[in-house]
């Protein structure tokens, strides 16, 4: 729940100007349309068009699973992996600007709905044994020097299929850019101004917080039990966001920063998206359509 994993010391000038990571000062990027944002489904950012969509990611994962399962069959193991389902827009951006939905606030306080759902029973896949997992990973699963999330064995058997025709890629990391745009937008003077309006609204409701970051990260919400105080605070939080259109303004500001990033990294982003387009096409062809 804590999106702020570092402390940034901002020089006073950055309250009215945007400071780059190198300490230089840039003008604030101009805002476009300010929309109303009530849930993660309302959040669309410019860098999304250069990244893999949830549907595309699901397609790629299906190919790795199918080819990997066939690889395991040839080695004498029967592997049945559950079908991949794409993430929803809500799960992707539902908490980018912290709690937004009143229905979640009323039921779960500050806890995301997906965290409060009962965990599904772990399916039997055939990778439970150490010998099967070793073939899937391509290394000893007990080897602490290996990345447990990186498959080099059958789990990576689809790599040549997916990478066919990809002759060039870029080293731009969209996740890093989106993280940077979030932090820059949070410190932007226009977002800080709406934070103050939100804070005044919360104060009228009987809650003292300087920003939605602070209310989201209140240590009291780390307890196992959801209290009436947490519910009432979360409801006031959402209502004040709606009254001030905090998320809509924050989205507009972050959109402006991402447009600037796209201008700065235009060629690298174009190359990265072109490489993904080839991979997705290869995946669809491998799936028979």
Plain-language structure description:
With 289 residues, the chain is an all-alpha fold. 49% of the residues lie in helices and 1% in strands. It has twelve helices and two strands, in the order ββαααααααααααα. Strands 1-2 form a two-stranded antiparallel sheet. Helix 7 crosses helix 11. The chain is globular and about 65 Å long. The two termini are 39 Å apart. Mean pLDDT is 88; it is low at 1-17.
Q: What can be said about this structure in brief?
A:
This protein is mainly alpha-helical and 289 residues long. The chain is built from 12 helices and 2 strands. Helix content is 49%, strand content 1%.
Layout of strands and helices, then pairs:
Blueprint: E1 18-19, E2 25-26, H1 54-74, H2 89-93, H3 102-108, H4 113-116, H5 130-137, H6 159-163, H7 174-187, H8 189-204, H9 212-216, H10 228-244, H11 246-264, H12 266-286
Antiparallel strand pairs: 1-2
* Averaged pLDDT: 88
Helical segment count: 12
Shape: globular
Strand order of the largest sheet: 1-2
Major β-sheet profile: 2 strands, antiparallel
Distance between the termini: 39 Å
What gyration radius follows from the Cα positions, in whole Å?
A: 23 Å
Beta content comes to: under 5%
Uncertain residue ranges: 1-17
- State the helical fraction: 40-55%
Number of separate strands = 2
* H and E string: EEHHHHHHHHHHHH
| Helix/strand structural class | mainly alpha
């Amino acid at each position: 729940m804590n999106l702020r994993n570092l402390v940034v010391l901002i020089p006073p000038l950055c309250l009215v100007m945007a400071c780059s990571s190198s300490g230089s000062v840039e003008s604030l990027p101009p805002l476009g349309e300010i929309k109303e944002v009530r849930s993660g489904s309302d959040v669309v950012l410019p860098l999304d068009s250069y990244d893999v969509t949830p549907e595309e990611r699901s397609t790629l994962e299906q190919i790795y699973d199918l080819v990997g399962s066939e690889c395991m069959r040839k080695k004498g193991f029967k592997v049945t992996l559950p079908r991949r389902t794409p993430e929803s827009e809500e799960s992707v951006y539902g908490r980018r600007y912290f709690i937004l939905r009143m229905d979640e606030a009323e039921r779960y306080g500050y806890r995301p709905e997906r965290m409060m759902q009962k965990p599904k029973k772990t399916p039997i896949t055939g990778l439970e044994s150490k010998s099967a997992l070793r073939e899937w990973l391509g290394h000893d699963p007990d080897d602490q020097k290996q990345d447990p999330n990186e498959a080099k064995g059958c789990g990576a058997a689809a790599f040549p299929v997916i990478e066919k025709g990809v002759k060039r890629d870029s080293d731009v990391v969209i996740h890093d850019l989106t993280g940077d745009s979030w932090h820059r937008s949070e410190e932007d003077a226009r977002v800080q101004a709406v934070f103050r309006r939100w804070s005044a609204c919360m104060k009228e409701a009987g809650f003292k917080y300087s920003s939605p970051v602070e209310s989201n990260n209140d240590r009291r919400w780390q307890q196992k039990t959801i209290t009436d105080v947490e519910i009432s605070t979360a409801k006031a939080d959402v209502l004040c966001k709606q009254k001030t259109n905090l998320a809509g303004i924050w989205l507009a500001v972050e959109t402006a920063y991402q447009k600037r990033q796209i201008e700065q990294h235009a060629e690298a982003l174009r190359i990265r998206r072109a490489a993904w387009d080839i991979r997705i096409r290869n995946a669809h062809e491998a799936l028979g359509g």
